[in-house]
Amino acid sequence: MEAVDLDTGKMLARDVDLAESFFGRLKGLLGRRELPAGRGLWIKPCSSVHTFGMRFTIDVLFLDRDMRVVAMAKTLRPNRVSPFCSQAHSVLELPEGALDTAVTAVGNRIQIT
Sign of the C-alpha dihedral, residues 88, 92, 95, 99? Predict the structure, then answer.
């Protein structure tokens, strides 16, 4: 799958994995050495993430059911917890800097296909 910011027209990730099972969501990005440019992880349902045990920093988009960005956590470093976002239905985890490159903002609509 790939993720595009429909408001800016910019590609967020060309290769997005989906974590929707209990164990897939639980594992998330744990065990990976990095999240390379162009990659992402879409976790659903989800309204908060953590980076305990991770070795790299990520950018996080919180998406509502209509795939609108309701919150963002840029540069979420290892061993941290993101804010809880009650409006979020899913989360898109991206490499650090991806949100700045795509100029993504709260309110933008994201398409994952």
Answer: negative
What is the topology classification, in CATH, of domain 3-112?
Answer: Jelly Rolls (2.60.120)
Say what the pTM is.
0.93
Task: Give the E-state strand segments of 24-85 in sequence order.
Answer: 39-43, 58-63, 69-76
Burial 46-81 (b: 16+ CB within 10 A, else e): bbebebeebebbbbbbbbeeebbbbbbbbebeeeee
Beta strands in the chain (DSSP E): 3-5, 10-13, 15-19, 39-43, 58-63, 69-76, 90-95, 110-112
DSSP state of 108: -
| pLDDT per residue of the chain (113 residues) written in tens, 0 to 9 | 999 999 999 999 999 999 998 888 878 887 788 899 999 999 999 999 999 989 999 999 999 999 999 999 999 999 999 999 999 999 999 999 999 888 999 999 999 99
